[in-house]
Amino acid sequence: MDRLWAMQVFVRVAECGSFSRAAESLDLANATVTACVRNLERHLKVALIHRDTRRLNLTDEGSIFIARAREVLSAVEAAEAEVQKQLGEPRGSLTIDTPISIGHALLCPALPKFAARFPAIRTAVTLTNQRRHLIEHAIDVAIRMDRVEDAELVARPIYETRYKLCCSPQVAAMLPADVRELDPAQCLGILAEERRTSNPWRLRRGDEVHTIQPEGPLHFNSSDAAVQTAVQGGGVVQVLDIFVNPFIDRRELVQVYDDWDTEAKTFYAVMTKARVSSARVRVFIDFLTEVLDSARRPSATQAIKVRDLSQRYARAPKVEGGVAHPGRATPSPPAR
Questions:
Q1: Residue at 336 is within a domain
Q2: pLDDT on residue 318
């Protein structure tokens, strides 16, 4: 029996609270994970996990063993990172999670350069709009916007973007000169997360604030879909600039009412504390901050909100700084 591998499987089962979720995150069959834990228990001659039909709980022996197992696995990870640092060539697997639109516009175009620079790293990217739990799904780095789902995650700001109001040149020619006279029925909506109502547009010019609630005939849960509709003359859309800049450059869209300021959004690279020291994660984060426009890189001390998306975790407080910790504020390292 490979005891180190068995420790990894046991720790993942305990963290996921489920054999099936652990198997999914490790890309293994359920039977393999179950057999691995049973072989470890047989070797130790103790039960580590108490199983019932509803949930898994660690036994007293399991609670003692998991603490030591985590220490061992952390030491192994640190040793591997140190060796890779000396060799100058990080290697192994790197798992990335990113929202679909952000992946298309921001991350995926940069990945070929990363692969060419670090050919020994096998990078697997999942584009999904679901905020998947990093530990349960064995995610090394996730791209998040404005908030994270757990106060125990480390978040590093990597990019700042702003909304733009855009439409086709034909539509722009018929719009009123003042945005306060813009008919909401001409505005395409972006649906709020998990809702059927669209996000309002909040505009500011000096001390003046103007809000538009889109009431057009079309509303989407996808920025890409809204942009494509605007290109076809479907109306005015408010979308983050990274999604519309290429269309503006090609003159398929034009920016309107740019004398009004719009909201800014920040993208974060998020990881668990255990992954911060990983050489693969470190070079990936450094690569992102290098290739992204430095003028658009936010402050490392920028606040990030915490939203708990799992009933298994207590709701976390609002956190100041790039690293989310309950009850205290610690900024993440500045981008280099």
A1: no
A2: 34
Question: What is d(CA 121, CA 321) in angstroms, rounded to the nearest whole number?
Answer: 30
Distance of CA 108 to the CA centre of its chain: 14
Burial annotation 294-307 (CB, 10 A radius, 16+ → b, else e): eebbbebebbbebe
Amino acid code (one letter) for 123: T
| Residue 183 domain boundaries | 161-264
Helix (H) or strand (E) holding 315: none
Are 285 and 250 members of one domain? no
- The per-residue pLDDT for 141 is 93
pLDDT in tens, 158-186: 888 899 999 999 999 999 999 999 999 99
- Contact indicator for 292, 159 with CB cutoff of 8 Å: yes
Q: Could you report the per-residue pLDDT of 305-323, keeping only the tens digit for each?
A: 555 444 433 333 333 334 3
Q: Is 175 domain-assigned?
A: yes
This prediction's pTM: 0.62
* Interatomic CA distance for residues 90 and 73, integer angstroms: 18
Q: Are 239 and 190 contacting, i.e. CB atoms less than 8 angstroms apart?
A: yes
**What CATH number corresponds to the domain at position 200?**
3.40.190.290
Q: pLDDT digit string (tens) for 189-223?
A: 998 776 778 999 999 999 999 999 999 999 998 88
Residues 67 and 139 in one domain: no
123 φ, ψ (degrees, to nearest 5): -100, 125
Question: What is the overall mean pLDDT for the chain?
Answer: 81
Selection from 6, 90, 22 nearest residue 277 by Cα? 90
Overall residue count recorded for the chain in this entry:
336
Q: How far is CA 86 from the centre of its chain?
A: 30
Q: Which of 38, 95, 113, 40 is nearest to 287 (CA)?
A: 113
How many domains in the chain? 3
Q: Nearest-CA neighbor of 139 among 283, 274, 20, 286?
A: 274
